Each structure stands twice: as C-alpha cells, then as structure tokens.
Amino acid sequence: MKTLIAFLMMMALITASGCWSSTSNQGGIAPTDETFSISVPSSSTIKQGEDAAVVVTLNRGSAFKQDVQVEFKADGISVTPKDVLVKASDKPEAKVKIAVAKNAALGDYIVNVKATPATGKPASTAFTVKVVVP
C-alpha cells in the first residue's frame, strides 16, 4: 500500500511539473543581451485536496545581471509563496507550491506570473492548472 501511495505521489508530481513550452515576453533593458524572459509549465494537473511543486525559470540574457521579483496570482487555488526574489547570483528559478482544496471546483485555473527586474520592463506570462477528481 505504501508503495502504491508513493508511486501515485510521484506520478502526481511528474504530471504537475508539466512541459516547459510557454515563454513570456521579454523584460529588462533594450539591448538583447540585457533582457530576460520567464518559462512556465504549459499546464499542470492537480487532484482535489492535493498540492504540487512548480518551477518557473528565468532565461537571462548574457548581460542581464539584475535581481528579479517574481509574483504569482491565482483565483480559486493557493500559490505559496506569492512573491519570490531571484537574486542575480542565484539559480535562475522560482519554486512555488500550488495547493488545491478538497472542495475546489473541477476545471482549469489560470496562474499569472509577473517578473519585475530592479530596472527595466517586467515580463509576464501565465499557465493553466487543471483540477481533477482524486
């Protein structure tokens, strides 16, 4: 039974991580090597009453050396933390946990992601979380 539960949890995490195919518009300062974009999973599937880890990646231009504040907003599901500061010296990713209540309505939820550098334009994108029956 423990093996089955461990297997199901592993499959849920793999499913929740999704495919990396959605990339934001460019943020940062005008020259191409001083810009950045953000990549998010194309979608994630999470069962009612469960949660999953999601990683958002910053794609930095070769000269982009700024800290970036990444904000997450979603209605109907929980994203924690709501803000992540990715320092220029850190690994270029923001990890969050998405939790779905046991009584959450089935269907698709949009998670909006906005990344704002210390100077320059922000970048934004979104991904979908599909809530399914456990």
| Average pLDDT metric | 84
The helix/strand class is mainly beta
| CATH topology heading | Immunoglobulin-like
Name of the CATH first level: Mainly Beta
Give me the number of helical elements: 1
Which range does the strand content fall in?
over 45%
SSE series:
HEEEEEEEEEEE
The oligomeric state of the chains shown is: single chain
Which overall shape is indicated by the principal axes computed on the Cα atoms? Answer: elongated
Low-confidence stretches: 6-21
CATH architecture: Sandwich
| Domain tally | 1
- Largest sheet at a glance? 6 strands, antiparallel
What portion of residues is helical? 10-25%
Task: Give the CATH H-level superfamily.
Answer: Immunoglobulins
Structure overview:
The structure is a single chain. The chain is built from one helix and eleven strands, in the order αβββββββββββ. A hairpin with a 6-residue loop joins strand 2 and strand 3. The relative contact order is 0.27. About 12% of the residues have low confidence. It has a single domain, classed as Immunoglobulins (Immunoglobulin-like, Sandwich), CATH 2.60.40.10. The protein has 134 residues and is mostly beta strands.
From the structure above, extract its key features:
single chain; 134 residues; mainly beta; Immunoglobulin-like; six-stranded antiparallel β-sheet; five-stranded mixed β-sheet; 1 helix; 52% strand; elongated
In brief:
By secondary structure, the protein is mainly β. The protein has one helix spanning 2-17, and strands at 20-23, 27-28, 35-41, 43-47, 51-60, 68-74, 78-80, 83-86, 93-99, 107-117, 123-132.
